[in-house]
Amino acid sequence: MYNFEYHNPSSLDDALAKLKASDDGMLISGGMTLLPTMKQRLAAPSDLIDLSGIDGLAGVALNGETLTIGAMTRHADVAISPDVLKAIPALAYLAGHIGDPQVRNRGTIGGSVANADPAADYPAGVLGLNATVETNVRKIAGDEFFTDLFETALEENEIITAVHFAVPDKAGYAKFENPASGYAMVGVMVAKFGSEVRVAVTGAGPNAFRIADMEAALAKDFSPNAIANIAVSADGLNSDMHASAEYRAHLVTVMAGRAVSAAA
Amino acid sequence: MSISVKMNINGKAVSGDVEPRTLLVHFIREHQKLTGTHVACDTSQCGACTVHLNGKATKSCTMLAVQANGADVTTIEGVAKADGTLHPMQLAFQDNHGLQCGFCTPGMVMMAIDIGNRHANPDADTVRHELDGNICRCTGYHNIVKAVMAGAKAMNASK
């Protein structure tokens, strides 16, 4: 790892000032992706601005139909939060299956969402649960947040402060994980809001996406059978040493069915 | 440029000057000479470097020493009593032969204590899920799982 300047601000304003003053600074929350990337020298920021010392960025709050998770909330805390378990158990399940326990003790929702790894779990949650990503300057609709491989709608000098999830009638998450990394080869969040259904996929494409055909079918009949014959095109899906695009396309239908079965 | 860090390791206040890029595991091993915490994969896969940070299992190879400034850190050297009496989880690894070469064992024991802190009587499936972040290349895991189940029970019985 190349060296860098380390800053530990106690306020969001101070963090922003440090970020703006740096040549090529980066924010660090849990560091579960950033530190390994820096070790490999794939990232070499001039400055690291640590968000962990800023009060008020961590915690869960349930307010009617909205579940708010602070950006610095660790995955392990989301997985056992009584509010998350009560309002959206599928989201607690999702958080409890990210990486491994040690990673869940450090990794944060804000870091995961900002990093927008194509195989991360939270993007499926953000899209599937019609979430809004709040930053220091604005609120961004989940549907507009993930734009490409590791690309988001975030502008320079924008810091995620919280993610607001819509509480569904029921939701389920199912993933086929890479056994070595725990990352999703394909992960699907299915959520039912009244007569509307959302089906969001991570791991399969450059960024998380929804499947309109499955959403329409599930809106009429919320059962695994309703989507069992809806095939997804392999065009544009990820292909790597772990799985071909065709295999991932097949997995999308399988995991979507399992997510519907798991919905609660 | 170096930064001064202070933390409690195994109940003892320690301090040192580190580069920002110094990993917590290197601060523990090279600055504090506590070499029970191991480095193996160095890519946050294997869990040999697991320590407790404020009571929670953490991979010390994927954390900067500066990020642990002010924290309470427990390493494998800090789990037995001062008179040498082993921690119930260490005894369970001994009784169940939960190791062969022993290289992964410090990380396994630190993770296992975290499991025992959260699960009074875990079943084998729970233990296997919880051991996702620890790799052993000798045992095939069966005896480790037995040890963690027995150790978690013993930890909670002696509370």
Question: How is this fold's topology laid out?
Answer:
The complex is a heterodimer of chains A (264) and B (159).
Chain A: E1 5-7, H1 12-21, E2 25-28, H2 34-39, E3 47-50, E4 60-63, E5 66-70, H3 75-80, H4 82-87, H5 89-95, H6 101-106, H7 109-115, H8 122-128, E6 132-135, E7 139-141, E8 146-148, E9 151-152, E10 160-166, E11 170-177, E12 184-193, E13 196-202, E14 209-210, H9 212-220, H10 224-227, H11 245-262
Parallel strand pairs in A: 1-3, 2-3
Antiparallel strand pairs in A: 4-5, 5-10, 6-7, 6-10, 8-9, 11-12, 12-13, 13-14
Chain B: E1 3-9, E2 12-18, H1 24-31, E3 50-53, E4 56-59, E5 72-74, H2 88-95, H3 105-118, H4 124-130, H5 142-157
Parallel strand pairs in B: 1-5
Antiparallel strand pairs in B: 1-2, 3-4, 3-5
Helix pairs in contact in B: 2-5, 3-5
Tell me the fraction of residues in β-strands of chain B, as a range. 15-25%
> Rg of chain A to the nearest angstrom?
18 Å
Number of strands of chain A: 14
CATH class of the largest domain in chain A: Alpha Beta
Q: Helix- and strand-based class of chain B? A: alpha+beta
| Main beta sheet of chain B | 5 strands, mixed
**Number of beta strands of chain B:** 5
> Strand-and-helix sequence of chain B, N→C?
EEHEEEHHHH
CATH homologous superfamily label of the largest domain in chain B = Beta-grasp domain
**Distance between the terminal alpha carbons of chain A, to the nearest Å?**
44 Å
Number of domains of chain A: 2
Task: Calculate the terminal CA-CA distance of chain B, rounded to whole Å.
Answer: 46 Å
CATH topology name of the largest domain in chain A: Uridine Diphospho-n-acetylenolpyruvylglucosamine Reductase, domain 3
Written account of the structure:
- The complex is a heterodimer of chains A (264) and B (159).
- With 264 residues, chain A is α+β, with helices and mostly antiparallel strands.
- Chain A has two domains: 60-166, Uridine Diphospho-n-acetylenolpyruvylglucosamine Reductase, domain 3; 170-262, Enolase-like, domain 1 (2-Layer Sandwich), CATH 3.30.390.50.
- Chain A has eleven helices and 14 strands.
- Chain A has helices spanning 12-21, 34-39, 75-80, 82-87, 89-95, 101-106, 109-115, 122-128, 212-220, 224-227, 245-262; strands spanning 5-7, 25-28, 47-50, 60-63, 66-70, 132-135, 139-141, 146-148, 151-152, 160-166, 170-177, 184-193, 196-202, 209-210.
- In chain A, strands 4-5-10-6-7 form a five-stranded antiparallel beta sheet. A four-stranded antiparallel beta sheet of chain A has the order 11-12-13-14, with helices on both faces.
- Chain A is globular.
- The termini of chain A are far apart.
- The relative contact order of chain A is 0.12.
- The mean pLDDT of chain A is 97.
- Chain B has two domains: 3-76, Beta-grasp domain (Ubiquitin-like (UB roll), Roll); 88-157, DNA polymerase, domain 1.
- In chain B, helix 3 (105-118) crosses helix 5 (142-157).
- Chain B has a five-stranded mixed beta sheet, with helices on both faces.
- With 159 residues, chain B is α+β, with helices and mostly antiparallel strands.
- Classes of the chains: A alpha+beta (264), B alpha+beta (159).
- Chain A binds chain B through residues 1-6, 8, 28, 31-32, 35-36, 38-39, 48, 50, 52, 76, 99-103, 105-106, 180-182, and chain B through 1, 3, 19-21, 42-45, 47, 50, 53, 56-59, 62-64, 66-67, 69, 111, 114-115, 130, 132-134.
